[in-house]
Amino acid sequence: MAFLSRQRQALCAWQGRQRKGTNAMGEYAIEFEQVSKTFPHAAEPAVHETSLNIAEGSFITILGASGSGKTTLLKMVNRIHEPTSGRIRVQGQDITSLPVKNLRRKIGYVIQQIGLFPHMTVEQNIATVPKILGWNAGKIRERVAELLELVHLPAEFRDRYPRQLSGGQQQRVGIARAMAGDASIMLMDEPFGALDAITRASLQDELIDIQRKLNKTILFVTHDIDEAMKLGDQIVIMNEGRIQQYGTPLEILTEPANDFVRQLVHADDVFQRLELMEAQRMMVPVRQASGEIGHTVYTTDSLKKVLSCLLQSDGEQVGVRNEDDELVGTIGFEQLKVLDGRIHEPIESR
């Protein structure tokens, strides 16, 4: 049940985000074409031959245990690790055709250890890439102010040093620094892994909001199933250097590709499916309603919340309201009983 309680509101936000496609030119933000990586003296590749396309503006979580190859896959995008074979394209361009420094200026990078320069102020840390890009002082100062507001840090923090900030505040600065050059792609390697649960949940929600506002393409590595489900438009599941499945959270829960995926995400747990589905999906239109209505929920609330309300209510049904607070439908136990028969139908709000 801990899985469910940590995800309720953010999963509703995920359901409301539209699924992303390629851009108008039909290009992808990142393309892996038969990419592999074998480290010196290693008996097996860290990443076996992998082909994968990442759409512009998508939020992709890469999920796997330690040693699964997820971080190696991520670090090949900005050439921290050079591929042993295959080709990677960023916005249609082969990454080996660019000088490494130029490539990395186009891609934001955030890690768990944060990596802020301790001798620099918050403003100086955020301004690192804009200075390299030759921006003038006025433009840099405006950009710093804009980003501090975006990551919810007070303007007066610009003159503080990293040692004067909490872990969560430092991570916010790290995100701001990664975005300072207005890179359209961000790579994030377990950035919230060292934070306490409350701070971590808050930053996850803020990152979802940032991605929705700015439409960045984000690759986010995590070993945490809750985090992967909460953040990702789609999830890449890796094991022993191979992709096991690539799909939306609901697809992975309802159609796991193999036993490894099924066990990893606890796919047989119907309560997880309830958390990933919206009330509007199973409601009976209000004109067909009969019987007593107890509590009410909103169309974008999860079916898990509906079940909770039904169990707490004296009524036979839960009312469903739209964003204008109008009663538009009802859900009772009868609707939840037929869940498995309708679970593969598309969610219209995506």
TrEMBL record:
Write down the EC number. 7.6.2.9
Protein topology in the membrane: Peripheral membrane protein
Any matching Pfam family: ABC_tran
Task: Name the keywords, alphabetized.
Answer: ATP-binding, CBS domain, Cell inner membrane, Cell membrane, Membrane, Nucleotide-binding, Repeat, Transport
Q: Which domain of life is it from?
A: Bacteria
Group of enzyme by EC: translocase
Alphabetized GO MF terms: ATP binding
Where would I find the ABC transporter domain in this sequence?
A: 30-265
Subcellular locations according to the entry: Cell inner membrane
Point out the signal peptide segment.
none
Q: Which PROSITE patterns match?
A: ABC_TRANSPORTER_1, ABC_TRANSPORTER_2
Question: What main location does UniProt list?
Answer: membrane
- Catalytic activity, reaction form: a quaternary ammonium(out) + ATP + H2O = a quaternary ammonium(in) + ADP + phosphate + H(+)
Q: Give the protein family.
A: Belongs to the ABC transporter superfamily.
Subunit and interaction comment: The complex is probably composed of two ATP-binding proteins, two transmembrane proteins and a solute-binding protein.
Q: What is the protein's name according to its record?
A: Quaternary amine transport ATP-binding protein
Q: Which organism is it from?
A: Marinicrinis sediminis
Top-level taxonomy: Bacteria, Bacillati, Bacillota, Bacilli, Bacillales
